[in-house]
Amino acid sequence: MEARHLWRCDRPEAVTMKAVLEFTYPEDEANLRHALYGGKAIGALVDIQMVVRSHFKHDADPRDVLEKVRELTNTALNECGEE
């Protein structure tokens, strides 16, 4: 008898799961934007994390780090329509 792992997913229907998000427009416009641009927000957080990590690793000037964080934050918010 072949050993099988419980975590393995052998059923095709388990691999093709879907989720549908519904928004009432225009009332939920902000929530819709957040759902659409969440990936960009995560990318901005990763960029900010790298800048801060660089500060601790290379003893960068804190003012330079904060300026870069502000720049990355403003760029991400503008790209997501959150001016």
Dominant shape: flat
Indicate the percent of residues in helices.
55-70%
Number of helical segments with 4 or more residues? 4
What sequence of helices (H) and strands (E) makes up the elements? HHHH
Strand portion: under 5%
Structural class label: mainly alpha
User: Low-confidence segments, ≥5 residues, pLDDT <50?
Assistant: none
Instruction: Give me the Rg, rounded.
Output: 21 Å
Determine the N-to-C terminus distance. Answer: 61 Å
- What is the strand tally? 0
Largest sheet, in brief, is: none
Mean of residue pLDDT?
A: 81
In short:
This protein is mainly alpha-helical and 83 residues long. Helix content is 61%, strand content 0%.
Structure report:
By secondary structure, this protein is mainly α. It has 4 helices and no strands. The longest helix has 21 residues. The chain is flat. The mean pLDDT is 81.
Fill in the keyword field for this structure.
4 helices, 83 residues, 0% strand, 61% helix
Topology of helices and strands:
Blueprint: H1 12-15, H2 29-36, H3 38-58, H4 62-79
